[in-house]
Amino acid sequence: MRLLALDGATEACSVALLDDAAAGAGSPSLIYRSEEIGRGHADRLLAMVSELLAEAGYGLNALTAIVASVGPGAFTGVRITVATAQGLAYGADLPVVPISTLEALAWRLLNPRASGADAAPVLACLDARMAEVYWGAFRADPVLGVEPLAAARVSAPLELRWPGPVHGIGRGFSAYPELAQVPGLRLRPGDDRALPDARELASLGVLRHTAGRALDAAELAPLYLRDKVALTEAERAAKIRL
């Protein structure tokens, strides 16, 4: 299986190429690029794809599928990632595997190979701007990698709640230090700065593709969570005062 994974849904931009066809009995080969660039995701994503394929020595037609992060995240970044994945998939007649940014974050801790992983669920949290966070709770799943324990949502930081011990991960925790008040939260050093990463997307993509979760490129859709992306100045000020 050869998977190309793309993520540009946040301020980071990353691409990974996972190839288990050449791995034999060993671990799959994975090559990777990542930059925290803020802007310019469209150009950089495509450049990274070209770099990785050149390094691997084969083209898009040799791939099994394309894995795409579908959000939630920055509106423009999510849209660029989905459109880029669709364009590449259409051009090479490939299926796509959608994975949310929150799932990718949770998998970093729930992956059985993760250091210090245990049975506690994971609370993944990203800064949604406008005094809100995107968040979701997940547990390990032997088939799909991660399983949501509730629907992902966007809310004010102090509306984030989860009963019992839970591991936290994602930049929402550093953007809103008040989230340290979540009862039972365990937060390892550095996990509060984590962003979605194409390596986790690729790893999860293997499981999802094997489980039959690949889609036609036309079916790939963004996950925004927030119904209204643009606010008036008055609405923005009101949110900040909350």
Architecture blueprint of SSEs:
Layout: E1 2-7, E2 12-19, E3 29-36, H1 41-56, E4 65-69, H2 75-92, E5 96-99, H3 101-110, E6 122-129, E7 132-141, E8 145-148, E9 153-155, E10 166-169, H4 172-175, E11 185-186, H5 198-210, H6 233-241
Parallel strand pairs: 1-4, 4-5, 6-10, 10-11
Antiparallel strand pairs: 1-2, 2-3, 6-7, 7-8, 7-9
Let me know the largest β-sheet. 6 strands, mixed
Listing every helix as H and every strand as E from the N terminus to the C terminus, the arrangement reads: EEEHEHEHEEEEEHEHH
Number of strands: 11
What would you say the CATH architecture of the largest domain is?
Answer: 2-Layer Sandwich
Radius of gyration: 18 Å
Portion in beta strands = 25-35%
**N/C terminus separation:** 49 Å
Q: What's the number of structural domains?
A: 2
Q: CATH superfamily assignment of the largest domain?
A: ATPase, nucleotide binding domain
Tertiary shape: globular
Uncertain segments: 230-242
Mean pLDDT comes to 89
Describe the protein in words:
By secondary structure, the chain is an alpha/beta fold. The chain has 2 domains: 137 residues, 2-Layer Sandwich (Nucleotidyltransferase, domain 5), CATH 3.30.420.40; 92 residues, ATPase, nucleotide binding domain (Nucleotidyltransferase, domain 5), CATH 3.30.420.40. It has 6 helices and 11 strands. Strands 6, 7, 8, 9, 10 and 11 form a 6-stranded mixed beta sheet that branches. It has a 5-stranded mixed beta sheet with strand order 3-2-1-4-5, sandwiched between helices. The longest helix is centred in the middle third of the chain and has 18 residues. It is globular. The chain starts with a strand and ends with a helix.
